[in-house]
Write a structure and sequence with these properties.
binds NADP nicotinamide-adenine-dinucleotide phosphate; Elongation Factor Tu (Ef-tu), domain 3; five-stranded parallel sheet; Rossmann fold; disordered N terminus
Length: 346
């Protein structure tokens, strides 16, 4: 055990073996109450042709604003849609994960990107007062606003936000297990770019950058193969870096071996030997991003297999209950991620 200045807390604290030192992340340099105008410079569909979802990779130029050069990969930024809501009040800020590396899409920290999925659904009654027969189409306001924007359009932005879901200062001091579902892949695009691709030529950071020597496993879960986001990018990186492994887990398709579709924790459980050593190592950091439900299955699987040590603090109340029987509520209230487990789920 050693005592260091806790990276973002600004206090002296005890650091357990393997706990990362995180860089100081800047926060809220632009407040959502007074957003600045960025400019959309690129918007591209990033699902494959037959996907029923619409997910866009949207790049926003924030040069000349306080957001320029202000974020770290893994942080979020805010979008404040123009106009007012049904009650005549200005729309509230919505947070989107930054999909860029810290040096941006351009290598100069001027252009950030995000991974935005259009919310398209049917209305459902939320309260007893709502009409139970109303099932008209419901379109999420902000996601469709962001996805509709064209190159050249202004977009009111704020941020950055988030202090913990970032890479450690010394990238090679750790190994990494990155778990994503759906658009939860966004921060991992930035991470993988920063660890294995690096800033483009011309960037002031280009000369000093070196590829990461750590072992990195990325596990991505989607309903169908056509929903895999940034799939070509991850496959290319994996092809050129033996220390990066890209795993895809499809929930609604039959597997190549004839097995049924599965969630990422089922996949990890089924193929445990490839993760066992990684998870037992004190060097390893786990990052989990995506659907709220994934936290439950992943935590249960780690605990069931005795691989939770260093990643989870499990309350004594649960000691006599097999992890497979934990309820979602028990996991949320009684199982806490440690400093070696970063969690961003919604
Ligand atoms: P999606 O494409 O529908 O993919 C989600 C995948 O996870 C599907 O294969 C789904 O399977 C599976 N899944 C469902 N329940 C699960 C569970 N309990 N454990 C493990 N896997 C499970 O995803 P999406 O629509 O993009 O949604 C992504 C979510 O991530 C959203 O809720 C979004 O808010 C969140 N997100 C969070 C952040 C962040 O925190 N910074 C960033 C981006 C996105 P089935 O559908 O077949 O059941």
């Amino acid at each position: 055990m050693s005592t260091v200045s806790a990276a973002n807390a600004g206090t002296e604290t005890t650091r357990l073996p393997g706990e990362p030192i995180l860089p100081e992340a800047r926060m809220h340099v632009v407040l959502p109450t007074s957003p600045v105008n960025g400019k959309v410079v690129h918007s591209k569909l990033c699902t494959k042709s037959k996907s029923a979802s619409f997910v866009r990779h949207v790049c926003v130029d924030v040069s000349g604003t306080p957001l320029e050069g202000s974020w770290l990969a893994g942080q979020s930024f805010g979008v404040v849609p123009p106009g007012t809501d049904g009650n005549g009040k200005p729309h509230k800020v919505r947070l989107y994960s930054i999909a860029s590396p810290s040096y941006g899409e351009d290598g100069f920290g001027k252009v950030l990107s995000t991974t935005c999925k259009r919310l398209l659904s049917e209305r459902e009654p939320q309260t007893a007062k709502d009409d139970p027969t109303d099932h008209r189409l419901f379109t999420g306001m902000c996601s469709n606003y962001v996805c509709d924007l064209r190159e050249g359009d202004a977009i009111p932005v704020a941020g950055p936000a988030g202090k913990r879901f970032i890479l450690p200062t010394d990238r090679n001091a750790h190994d990494y297990l990155l778990l994503a579902t759906g658009t939860g892949i966004a921060p991992f695009r930035g991470f993988i770019h920063e660890l294995f691709v690096g800033p483009p030529e011309g960037s002031p950071l280009h000369a000093a950058w070196r590829p990461c020597t750590a072992n990195v496993h990325l596990v991505m879960g989607t309903p169908y193969t056509s929903d895999l986001i940034y799939d070509d990018f991850f496959r290319q990186v994996a092809k050129h870096h033996a220390n990066f492994t890209y795993h895809t887990v499809i929930s609604r398709e039959v597997r190549l071996d004839g097995g049924k579709g599965e969630y990422i924790h089922h996949y990890m459980d089924r193929t445990l030997p490839q993760f066992d050593q990684l998870l037992r190592s004190e060097r390893t950091l786990a990052y989990i991003c995506g659907l709220a439900g994934m936290q439950v299955g992943v935590f249960q699987t780690l605990a069931q297999r005795g691989l939770h040590s260093g990643y989870l603090d499990i309350h004594a109340d649960l000691a006599g209950i097999p992890p497979a029987d934990w309820t979602a509520e028990q996991v949320k209230r009684r199982v806490h991620a440690t400093r070696r487990c970063m969690l961003e789920v919604y």
